Amino acid sequence: MRIAIGSDHAGFALKGLLTDHLREAGHDVIDHGATNQDPVDYPDYAARVARAVAEARAEFGVLICGTGVGMSIAANKVRGIRAAAVSEPTSARLAREHNDANVLCLGERIVGTEQARACVDAFLRFSFQGERHGPRVAKIRALEEAAGR
Do 83 and 53 form a contact (C-beta atoms < 8 A)? Predict the structure, then answer.
């Protein structure tokens, strides 16, 4: 699977650990930065990863900042992106199964390394269930259309 990953300075260390974890699991990982812990603006990196997913250059995205919240807000501004900020594996699984999330957002200040790995693994292991959830995701797409995105 091809995964786009990115972080700001607050998520840089966890991004490196998750990149290694994903590659060890056999995934093709595209690193969109940041390249060090110097302060940067998270929306820039959220946009890079979100666009890679929206343009089908990656199947899924992983974004890391201090809390995961800023990245999710920014990524969700890109048409076709359903980014979910999670802090435990059950929410990661349900984001995929119920919301067809395509970008996982994590907070390095919130989740530990093992919990972050478990979230990524759950997110990638499960898929959208459709059925009763399909019309709800269609309503999300309709909101995007109405907003002109």
Answer: no
Q: Does domain 2-146 have CATH number 3.40.1400.10?
A: yes
- More confident site: 16 or 148: 16
Residue ranges per structural domain of the chain: 2-146
Six-digit token string for 25 = 């699991």
Phi, psi of 2 (to 5 degrees): -95, 125
H or E element in which residue 12 lies: helix 12-24
Tokens standing for 113? Answer: 């390394």
The continuous run of DSSP H or E covering 74 comes out as helix 69-75
pLDDT digits (tens, 9 = 90+) for 31-62: 999 999 999 999 999 999 999 999 999 999 99
Q: How many other C-beta atoms lie within 10 A of the C-beta of residue 68?
A: 26
- Residue 18: phi and psi, rounded to 5, are -70, -35
How far is residue 81 from each of residues 14, 36, 141, measured CA to CA in Å?
22, 26, 9
Q: Which residues carry out catalysis?
A: 65, 98
pLDDT band at 149; cut points 50, 70, 90: low
